[in-house]
Each structure stands twice: as C-alpha cells, then as structure tokens.
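step: validate -> pass
step: tokenize input -> pass
step: predict -> running
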Amino acid sequence: MSTIRITPTLDATSKAIIEQLQLDGRRSYAEIGKAVGLSEAAVRQRVQKLTDAGVLQIVAVTDPMRLGFSRQAMLGIRVSGDTRVVADKLVEIPEVDYVVLSAGSFDILAEIVCEDDDALIELLNQTIREIDGVLSTETFLYLQLKKQKYDWGTR
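step: predict -> pass
step: emit ->
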C-alpha cells in the first residue's frame, strides 16, 4: 500500500526549521527556535506537524558498510502490469530501503542493502524475482560511496 499524504503549504518559518534540521538533526528545539524566532514549544509543535504530514523524518543516517552490510546495489526492474502493485510488494522487503517508479529503461528503481553477496543472490532469486509482474532485473553494484547529502534546503 502506498503512502500518499497531502503535503501542507510550507511558510518561511517551517522551511527555516527544516533547513536547521537538515544541517543538524540533533539540534535542540530551543536552538532552532532562536534561529527562526519561535519558542521551543512552537518549534516542537511545527516539527510534529511536519513529521505527521510526511514532510520530514528525523533519522540517523549511517554508512551501511561500517555496520556490516557489505553489499549495496540499485536494482532496475522491468514490470508487466501495474507497477504500483510490484512497488508495494518491494516496499515490504526489509533489505529494500528505497523504491521509486521511474520512466525510461526501468519501471522501478529499488536500492537494497545486504550483508554479503550470498544474501544478495538469495534476495534476488528467492524474493524479488518471485514477485508477480517482475519481468527482469538489472543489478548495479555499489563499489564506493562518494557522496550522500541531505541538506539541499527548501523551495
């Protein structure tokens, strides 16, 4: 099941809060409040509303390699039938951390994180390729992470 939420209109203050959290997700609400001109309670309330609306998540971004997940890959998936149905099944797989419907050579792009090559082979053959509607997959192995950034700001 896809998670479609209505995105609220963001005012300049909410955007400023988001940008503060993009720079440092551990920043206190009091510090953010000083930066954007609100009380700590007002910042807490806005952050909760933004989180509830699906505008933002506050998470610890990690390097999977340093946590023992030595195999990361992007999968290009070709589908017959409704791509949304296949995407919804991919979303349920714990090793899949990113799923988008795409245009071009592939109908779906899915990023996966596995402990090793054996786990990748098992995931591909026993889980992903067994999903009804999956016609083919192409695996793009990650050799080295050069940039991962989440501070692009707001518009």
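step: describe -> The helical segments are 12-23, 29-36, 40-52, 83-91, 117-128.
step: cleanup -> pass
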